[in-house]
Amino acid sequence: MDIIRIILAIILPPLGVFLQVGLGKHFWINILLTILGFIPGVIHAIWVIGRY
């Protein structure tokens, strides 16, 4: 299942984070990072998926 989340994190980072941790602080941080720049959002999403 993590492979699917990582693929979703590359396509749409907040979705990958949402599927991993729900509507917590990491989701909102990822939304902000994705708005500020797509690459930071992807990096954060992969980090969250790998950590949790």
TrEMBL record:
GO cellular component: membrane
PANTHER family per UniProt: HYDROPHOBIC PROTEIN RCI2 LOW TEMPERATURE AND SALT RESPONSIVE PROTEIN LTI6 -RELATED, UPF0057 MEMBRANE PROTEIN ZK632.10-RELATED
Classification via Pfam families: Pmp3
Residue ranges of coiled coil: none
Cellular localization per UniProt: Membrane
Organism: Fulvimarina endophytica
The entry's keywords: Membrane, Transmembrane, Transmembrane helix
PROSITE patterns: UPF0057 (PS01309)
Regions that span the bilayer: 6-24, 31-50
Family: Belongs to the UPF0057 (PMP3) family.
Protein name as catalogued: YqaE/Pmp3 family membrane protein
